[in-house]
Prior knowledge:
Elements: E1 4-14, E2 24-29, H1 32-43, E3 47-52, E4 69-81, E5 85-103, E6 108-115, H2 124-144, H3 149-157, H4 161-171, H5 176-184, H6 188-240, H7 244-257, H8 262-276, H9 284-297, H10 310-320, H11 325-340, E7 348-352, H12 359-370, E8 374-378, H13 386-389, H14 402-410, E9 416-420, H15 433-440, E10 449-450, E11 457-458, E12 464-469, H16 477-481, E13 484-487, H17 493-511, E14 519-521, H18 523-533, H19 540-560, E15 565-567, H20 569-576, E16 594-601, E17 604-616, E18 621-624, H21 629-644, E19 659-664, H22 678-690, E20 698-700, E21 703-704, E22 710-711, H23 716-725, E23 730-734, H24 746-749, E24 753-757, H25 760-767
Parallel strand pairs: 1-3, 7-12, 7-13, 8-9, 9-12, 14-15, 16-20, 18-19, 20-23, 23-24
Antiparallel strand pairs: 1-6, 2-5, 3-4, 4-5, 5-6, 10-11, 16-17, 17-19, 21-22
Amino acid sequence: xxxxxxxxxxxxxxxxxxxxxxxxxxxxxxxxxxxxxxxxxxxxxxxxxxxxxxxxxxxxxxxxxxxxxxxxxxxxxxxxxxxxxxxxxxxxxxxxxxxxxxxxxxxxxxxxxxxxxxxxxxxxxxxxxxxxxxxxxxxxxxxxxxxxxxxxxxxxxxxxxxxxxxxxxxxxxxxxxxxxxxxxxxxxxxxxxxxxxxxxxxxxxxxxxxxxxxxxxxxxxxxxxxxxxxxxxxxxxxxxxxxxxxxxxxxxxxxxxxxxxxxxxxxxxxxxxxxxxxxxxxxxxxxxxxxxxxxxxxxxxxxxxxxxxxxxxxxxxxxxxxxxxxxxxxxxxxxxxxxxxxxxxxxxxxxxxxxxxxxxxxxxxxxxxxxxxxxxxxxxxxxxxxxxxxxxxxxxxxxxxxxxxxxxxxxxxxxxxxxxxxxxxxxxxxxxxxxxxxxxxxxxxxxxxxxxxxxxxxxxxxxxxxxxxxxxxxxxxxxxxxxxxxxxxxxxxxxxxxxxxxxxxxxxxxxxxxxxxxxxxxxxxxxxxxxxxxxxxxxxxxxxxxxxxxxxxxxxxxxxxxxxxxxxxxxxxxxxxxxxxxxxxxxxxxxxxxxxxxxxxxxxxxxxxxxxxxxxxxxxxxxxxxxxxxxxxxxxxxxxxxxxxxxxxxxxxxxxxxxxxxxxxxxxxxxxxxxxxxxxxxxxxxxxxxxxxxxxxxxxxxxxxxxxxxxxxxxxxxxxxxxxxxxxxxxxxxxxxxxxxxxxxxxxxxxxxxxxxxxxxxxxxxxxxxxxxxxx
Length: 776
């Protein structure tokens, strides 16, 4: 164990430096406490305790801010400096441990325990450690080449381990914590072991540092060489009048400023290097430069910030579109979730509905509401896969696909991207574009979409893809499975009226250079215009008709010298002629064999008056009215049910053998198909065969099975609106369609008595004037 002795001395805290025993050092003293401690030491025995601070930033250190082990030093010289500072020269005398601090003002004093090195030079372990320290020191000197020859000779002259360790630590180690670690080691063997570890680590670090420096130097030399050669080439090409070199440099500068991904940067660098080596006039120069420009023109890393204000989004969506509640609700949901989770992938939506209901225009409104750029690609008639993915660069005149081109056009990586008429795509020998769309519209893999021309991973995950279609029947099942389908139903008459009043008429008045309110059309007249001159699910024809009325009004204003025109029913007929369409209104009195059915067409719901007649014959069933296969099978199923239940209906078992049955569905020129007329045909057959009249204020829809079950159908909202327009009082629907009643406007639903049928008997009880008597 080292010998120990106690004493009390003034304490001076050091910042960023340290004094070892036998070490001579000069430093400046400026803090008041330090100056006071130094002056007190000079007045006594000229000895002071020097100890390092743990944190150099602390201005007024206390006991806890100082290391425990320091050095007792003898003051050799003190010089006054300008500004109340002193420069002092000290020599380290002895290691000491700070055990207490009895005084902190006006200067610190410390109770110290002096530590003396007790070293046995004959001890084999000590001798081995001394030799190890010397070897590690020599290795460090050889590797780093930072130690002066004078220091090396001083170290090699020292023989005892304690002094050797202190000398090396004082002259070689630069890290304050490493030096404090050696100073704090009061045991000589422990001190030498720690020094060996530190020297070994420093030697390894120096080796790594040299390798890094060598690599950097080599790279710098290569860059300088490349720059020098490039400048020479540039000078030569300038003399020759060649401008290609300037173009290459511009491309290289642009590449450095563009945040490309790793693969894109590598390909761009390779292509620019290839371009720089091409001889002037080479045809390949244009191809190569075009490819580089396509890479650099894409909006890498550029996105527009989404406007997540839900109130503003609702307001914008309501400005130009009336109805379409499901679409608006879905967009507001997306914005709400995006507000909570910033890195959400863009949705992939498919708006399905008849033409003219506003599918395309609502997408433009969505882009405006979200605050994104809008790009559109029409897929109608697209039959070439290269339209989507681009052509491979091996072909002459190859260009990227429309998706990459649209991203360049948008200028951001997160636009609203509309694929219009996705159900109109087809395929041929050039490929199947629908299959190429599978990757684009799959949120799990479109973060690395590869265009055939670009051959780079392009992140499409932030794009909001929206597609439109008139029907999902022609969309391939794998593609349809990747999209969230939102039905956009046809407009009701009430919705068309509101759209015409709020949007179409004001827009046409403005487009024809008139003042707002110059053309007035009352609600009653607008309803007559909608019912008599348009028959569509959307409002395109309605807008054209309104535009025609406005044009006629402009002529009237100029001819008559008036500023306003009020369109009355008489004026409407004068402008547009006789009504083009008339609604089929049901007869008031019950009739045999005539039943009101309901159909869903591309222009909305329609009332179908199905007729049935019998005549002497051989038992054949004749169907007319341009019926499709499904509708013909429904008629056959209805006839089979009647035959199977002839006894219950009061008919003979062989009633069909000596008569023919004819079912006709007007209008004959309009094609019709679908299973929803099954219950209507059954009712017509029963009425005709039994002679029981059918109530004409009843309309029905539903598919029938051979067991007489009534199955659910689609388009209930449109069918109920057709029944409402026709003045129907009782509506018969399949019981399983009860859930769809909530989609029907309340003012329409309140006019009906709704009968929910599970079996055909429920339909017959409602529709027939009376139930047939059972055959005995």
